[in-house]
């Protein structure tokens, strides 16, 4: 460490570490949310195509790397269930995202306040009280 560098106080290191952890959590949630939104959109498209099909049309679903013959009714039911599950998970992730963003704002505010130090100037205070 050079002469001009200052060591970061432990309380500040702790707060910065907490803030970094919150940022990582937020990034993870946003990635999960993006993946789910993509999956949700894909399900919506599949439902649209399937609803246009007649009941007599032969339909298939993927099972790993193979296609399996199915019925329109079964696939519609499975896709609707998948869509509902994705909606529920998106709602949960959105709530988590909001909570983490609030916590991040609080952590930033706390760090700023800690760096500013006390709001009253140091030293004794003079009061003009008549004697």
TrEMBL record:
Keywords, alphabetical: Chaperone, Coiled coil, Cytoplasm
Protein name, UniProt field: Prefoldin subunit beta
Compartment(s) where it occurs, according to its Swiss-Prot or TrEMBL record: Cytoplasm
Any GO molecular function: protein folding chaperone
InterPro entries: PFD_beta-like, PfdB, Prefoldin
SUPFAM superfamilies from the UniProt entry: Prefoldin
Family named by the database record: Belongs to the prefoldin subunit beta family.
Annotated gene: pfdB
